[in-house]
Design a protein that fits this description.
The complex is a heterodimer. Chain A is of the alpha/beta class. Helices cover 56% and strands 9% of the residues of chain A. Chain A folds into three domains: 28-149 and 299-367, Response regulator (Rossmann fold), CATH 3.40.50; 152-293 and 380-389, Response regulator (Rossmann fold, 3-Layer(aba) Sandwich); 405-695, ABC transporter involved in vitamin B12 uptake, BtuC. In chain A, the strands form three sheets. Chain A has a five-stranded parallel β-sheet with strand order 2-1-3-4-5, sandwiched between helices. Chain A has a five-stranded parallel β-sheet with strand order 7-6-8-9-10, sandwiched between helices. The longest helix of chain A is centred in the middle third of the chain and has 29 residues, at 353-381. Chain A is globular. Chain A starts with 31 loop residues before the first strand and ends in a 16-residue tail after the last helix. By secondary structure, chain B is mostly helical. Chain B has one domain. Helices cover 78% and strands 1% of the residues of chain B. Chain B is built from 16 helices and two strands. Chain B is globular. Classes of the chains: A alpha/beta, B mainly alpha. At the A-B interface, helix 1, strand 2, helix 2, helix 3 and helix 5 of A face helix 3, helix 6, helix 11, helix 13 and helix 14 of B.
């Protein structure tokens, strides 16, 4: 074996022996053995934390049915860690209040990084089952163990797979293979990608044609990246994705007829989760994902006792969630099972455990070998290198027209216009609420998110197309707007902007977590028939759903412009915005005006949510990425200028598309935020607004 | 001294209790919560210098927090310097960044200023995430724990006094702003900038000064936080959530009052910690309930107690004086 430390899901990685410490038995008398669990149960990582907890609870029950841990009943003490501070605090709580001697968790490297520091200072064992940061167990902490392969290992194996299994089937030598590296920019993506790059270059001399990082939480369009990639014509795309982004890349690659021979991924998220299959159906076939024992895992390769426990685990997960175990279930569950094995043998839970882990390692080798066999066989069985896209006869018409570059500029312009359409659609409600009435609403994105959920549930329950749902959504969200105004906004409408800002921040927290509690943090997808429909004009490609969204944005904007200009209600709104006191003196019921404005704005953003739901994943924090952006759009266009906001959307989209294409997707936001600051400083009325308009109502 | 204690009875009680607690309580969880209460309180007090006293409400103060945290972490891990030196570096960089925000505060008002500060913190977030070779990018930096005062490797008791010290520094700055000529001038700027300018107050310079001072104090707390928690990553230290937290504590405690930020921090931090611990045990899907309660509490407090806890205290005092 070239590198002994790597194993999948079963091996214990680096182990350092600790000093001798007297075992503390606080829990011995109770007949229970308590282990602390630290996971991100709320916040943007909740979708993953939830599955870890499920996996842990299922394995806890399996362990207890089989005599518990060290003869005691295993009890899990849960803690929620959304950020490093919370992780450290909760680790402290688990240790001092719950009296645990072992903590397990934690998914994200920043969480386990902070929490394991706390554990180290209390001489508590940190048994990490899922964080892949290679530095986690190389910081000289004596109490830290990891049961999961690290990012370096993931990257190493991915390149191994490309060189040993893909290359022969592509009839290429490893050093002839052109690889494009694409990755989300969290610790996970960066770790895997950098390790893969290094090995690809130094050991196999593969040709790296591209390296691109992006932020999965703010990614709205991958067309520029795909167009750039298409020209570089890679054989293999090495893409580490999270969820939303993997689906987006796959869908838009197909739209753009971007032909590559294979896509390689690592890990339980993105292409590695069954979410990906749910989102794309049959279109999802053709990805190579290195992950925790998946459906290709050969049960019969295990020893009898392993076979029994693995089967019991699969059945239990199936029973609880209705699916085959996700990677997250596997990671957390097998980590806990391994801990039980070590504890049962060692019968102690302090740092001397390390020796036991070392002693146990030879036995861990066997399942690993079985796993490798499974991986290799599966790859061979699936007829890999036949290629994902390039079946004979399926030649893309766009390619026939000539070199790929021809259409790039047109396609970029189209991408800008379509993305701008989406931004305009999302921002039009804010133009009304912030632009005209000067009410700061930081919960704007959460109403968008609610609209997306409406589309999702209507689709699930009645297979209702979002285009029908939107008809229901507008009155529904109008009412929601009225209710929220009455309950929350009315009391602060005359208060300072600060009060409004923090009220709506509170509202945003409430709405996000209502969604989390009611519908969980899972990524959901709406897949109407027209989602994958593309229109072609020459070599240029238009996604139908985006075209419709843009057209509706234009229609909505024009309607509102007309409404503001020619109706009495519109005039009253403008009058109130310009001078509230004077408006009151003219007999205008300003409270009613604010209520109406707010409700119309919410109706618009709710409708927008329904319409964009098919394009993006639906999850509780889905709205966050659009809030700041909407403010940028509204300010750029000139406050209260509806048509200006439309142009503002196009500008933001243009900056984003051009920035992504020229400098890389990672930088796209920096450009529009800098543009935003510059516009605020030099033309505070916006690019097209009336000079001085920005001071109205402030 | 006695007169000072009598004049600042509330503060004497708050800080006195904080100083006594480590002697009476040894529970690490309790002390950890206390460190966070003091640290978030100090950060909110730093925010209050710009937001409360000068009226420049920023939602981008995480920029300075992040600068402080990264300066300390990078000084220790990249250059082998001590965290104290890193803190100094952080102060210098934050003063530079403070000038930029101060400049913005002279151009922009109200929500536009707030939005521009968010944009500023986002620019830093992206920059630090992308500059992988130097900052380790999104992977973050684990800060090594080396016991000793010079390396800021303290125990829980040590951290309580460290956080208390920085809290007292921030509090002292606030008291100075309440009592001094500069403070009254700032109040003038906050209440009516045109009138203040007409009276010959150098409003622009004062605003920049207040924002810069606030930035430097925030950065100091950021450096301490990095050493305390031991892991610095850009998505957290530059997050809008964090900026909101600083502002929120102050608004709930009472803007423009010296003790307000600390009262707000006591309420919010303990509420958050308590609710999180209480609801962590319920079925995983329902843990989010604590944030629903938290958010609702926030809306209610902002709505019904707009002048904050310090405001309530003042009203009670006035009523008692009349009775």
């Amino acid at each position: 074996m070239p590198r002994l430390v790597f194993t999948l899901a079963v091996a214990v990685l680096a182990v350092v022996l600790g000093g001798e410490l007297a075992p503390v038995g606080g829990q011995a008398t109770s007949g229970e053995y308590k282990i602390g669990v630290l996971e991100p149960i709320t916040g943007p990582l909740a979708f993953e934390g939830k599955r870890h907890v499920q996996g842990l609870e299922i394995v806890r029950d399996l362990i207890n049915q089989r005599g518990g841990v060290m003869g005691k009943k295993l009890v899990l003490s849960m803690a929620d860690a959304t950020d490093p501070t919370a992780a450290a605090t909760e680790a402290n709580r688990l240790i001092t209040r719950e009296g645990v001697k072992i903590i397990t968790g934690t998914f994200s490297s920043r969480l386990c990084g902070a929490a394991s520091e706390v554990a180290a200072r209390h001489d508590v064992i940190y048994w990490e089952s899922s964080c892949v940061d290679p530095r986690f167990n190389k910081r000289g902490l004596k109490n830290v163990y990891r049961t999961e392969i690290d990012a370096t290992g993931f990257g190493w194996y991915n390149i191994e797979f490309i060189a040993k299994h893909l290359a022969p089937r592509l009839n290429l030598k490893p050093n002839q293979i052109k690889v494009a590296f694409l990755s989300e920019d969290s610790s996970y993506g960066q770790g895997v990608t950098e390790s893969a790059r290094q090995r690809a270059k130094s050991e196999f001399g593969m040709q790296e044609v591209m390296l691109e990082y992006y932020n999965w939480q703010t990614l709205n369009d991958m067309t520029p990246t795909i167009l750039k990639m298409k020209q570089l014509n890679p054989d293999v795309v090495h893409h580490i994705g999270f969820g939303n982004d993997a689906v987006l890349f796959w869908r838009q690659s197909k739209e753009q007829s971007f032909l590559f021979k294979a896509l390689v991924h690592a890990g339980a998220t993105g292409y590695g989760g069954t979410d990906f299959g749910k989102a794309l159906g049959n279109d999802a076939n053709g990805v190579f994902a290195l992950l925790e024992p998946g459906p290709g895992f050969r049960l019969e390769a295990l020893r009898p006792e392993g076979r029994e426990i693995e089967k019991a685990f699969r059945d239990a997960v199936q029973k609880e969630t209705g699916t085959y175990p996700f990677g997250a279930h596997q990671l957390a569950g097998s980590g806990l099972w391994l801990l039980k094995l070590v504890l049962d043998r060692a019968r102690l839970d302090d740092q001397r455990l390390g020796r036991e882990v070392l002693r146990d390692r030879s036995e861990r080798q066997r399942p690993r070998a079985a796993l490798h066999a499974a991986v290799a066989e599966r790859a061979a069985g699936d007829g890999v290198a036949g290629g994902v896209h390039d079946a004979p006869g399926e030649v893309d018409p766009a390619r026939r027209l000539g070199p790929a570059q021809i259409g790039v500029l047109t396609q970029l312009v189209v991408a800008t216009v379509l993305l701008g359409g989406i931004y305009a659609l999302i921002s039009v409600g804010l133009t009304l609420i912030f632009g005209i009435m000067r009410v700061v609403n930081f919960a704007h994105g959460e109403f968008l998110m609610l609209g997306m959920y409406l589309a999702f549930w209507a689709f699930v329950a009645f297979t209702a197309d979002p285009y029908f749902v939107v008809v229901v959504a507008i009155p529904l969200f109008f009412v929601v707007g009225l209710v929220v105004y009455g309950l929350v906004m009315r009391g602060v409408i005359h208060a300072s902007h600060n009060v409004q800002i923090f009220t709506t921040v509170g509202l945003s927290t409430v709405l996000q977590n209502v969604a989390l509690v009611a519908w969980s943090g899972d990524f959901r997808y709406v897949r109407p028939w027209h989602l994958s429909t593309v229109l072609r004009a020459g070599s240029t490609i238009f996604n139908l759903t985006q075209v419709v969204a843009s057209l509706i944005a234009v229609a909505l904007t024009l309607t509102l412009v007309a409404f503001m200009k020619w109706t009495h209600a519109g005039r009253v709104m403008r009058a109130t915005a310009q001078d509230r006191d004077a408006a009151t003196l003219m007999g205008i019921d300003t409270d009613r005006v604010y209520r109406l404005t707010f409700a119309i704005g919410i109706a618009a953003v709710g409708a927008a949510g329904v319409l964009v739901a098919p394009l993006y994943s639906v999850y509780p924090t889905a709205g966050l990425q659009f809030v700041l952006l909407s403010y940028v759009v509204v300010v750029l266009g000139g406050l209260g200028d509806m048509l200006g906001a439309m142009i503002g959307s196009l500008i933001v989209a243009a900056v984003e598309v051009a920035g992504s294409y020229l400098f890389g997707a990672a930088w796209k936001e920096i450009f529009y935020f800098i543009l935003f600051i510059l516009v605020l400083v030099f033309r505070p009325a916006g690019l097209f607004g009336q000079r001085g308009a920005e001071t109205l109502g402030v | 001294m006695i007169a000072l204690v009598r004049a600042r009875r509330g503060a004497a009680v708050v800080f006195g209790l904080a100083a006594l607690t480590p002697i009476l309580v040894r529970d690490a969880y309790f002390l950890d919560s206390l460190v966070l209460i003091l640290l978030w309180g100090a950060l909110s007090a730093a925010w209050n210098v710009a937001g409360g006293y000068a009226g420049q409400v920023s939602i981008g103060h995480a920029s300075f927090f992040g600068i402080g945290a990264y300066s300390a972490a990078l000084t220790v891990t990249r250059f082998g310097g001590g965290p104290w030196f890193g803190m100094l570096v952080g102060i210098v960089i934050s003063i530079g960044a403070g000038f930029i925000i101060g400049f913005l505060s002279n151009r922009l008002k109200g929500p536009y200023f707030a939005l521009s500060t968010i944009a500023f913190s986002q620019v830093l977030l992206i920059g630090v995430s992308r500059w992988r070779g130097f900052t380790s990018g999104a992977e973050g930096i684990p800060v090594p724990f080396r016991p000793g005062f010079a390396t800021l490797g303290l125990g829980h008791v040590g951290w309580v006094y460290m956080a208390l010290a920085v809290a007292l520094v921030c509090y002292a700055v606030e008291v100075y702003l309440e009592r001094s000529r500069v403070g009254y001038q700032l109040a003038g700027v906050r209440e009516d900038e045109d009138a203040a300018e007409a009276l010959g107050i150098p409003t622009r310079r004062l605003k920049v000064g207040a924002v810069t001072l606030s930035a430097a104090l925030t950065s100091v707390c950021g450096s301490l936080w990095a050493q305390y928690v031991g892991f610095v990553d850009p998505t957290y230290v530059f997050s809008v959530d964090l900026s909101v937290r600083f502002a929120l504590n102050t608004i709930i405690g009472g803007m423009g009052t010296a003790l307000g930020p600390f009262l707000g921090s006591i309420l919010i931090t303990s509420l958050e910690t308590y609710l999180r611990a209480t609801f962590a045990g319920v079925k995983a899907g329902f843990t989010g309930i604590y944030l629903i309660i938290y958010g609702t509490a926030l809306i209610l407090v902002v709505r019904f107690v707009p002048d904050g806890l310090a405001g309530i205290a003042a009203r009670v005092r006035v009523r008692r004086a009349h009775a």
